[in-house]
Design brief:
mainly alpha; two-stranded antiparallel ribbon
């Protein structure tokens, strides 16, 4: 099996946003979802677009242009979808994060794991 490029932290956030948004994944909505995931930190829209381009170059996501719409002043929108390679990379990252979380929970106790799990579930919604 070929080695999969690992995802950087910000790439994980962007791919997670695309996964959660499904057919509604385009630049502004992806930015908003990433912003929700990292709250209270701030994320620039430009950083999201640069990351989307990099993820597309790696084959983790694909994009296409919609038809121009009147509500956008006749402009098209670039939409994104997660590719199989991106899904595998995200799954690998999530499995690593789970192992890290288990070690932290063991060291810091069950209360931390419970609190962390609750904050994770809130951010994922």
């Amino acid at each position: 099996m070929t080695q999969l490029d690992s995802l950087g932290h910000f790439e994980q956030l962007v791919i997670t946003a695309i996964l959660g948004l499904r057919e509604n994944a385009y630049g502004v909505t992806i930015h908003s979802k990433v912003q929700d995931l990292v709250h209270p930190r701030k994320v620039s829209l430009g950083a999201v677009y640069v990351t989307l381009d990099r993820l597309e170059d790696k084959g983790f996501v694909a994009s296409w242009m919609t038809e121009p719409s009147p509500e956008r002043g006749g402009r098209a929108r670039r939409c994104y979808r997660l590719e199989a390679l991106g899904e595998r990379a995200l799954q690998e990252s999530a499995e690593t994060a789970k192992r890290v979380s288990e070690v932290i929970a063991k060291a810091w106790g069950k209360r931390w794991a419970r609190d962390w799990g609750a904050s994770w579930e809130k951010a994922a919604v």
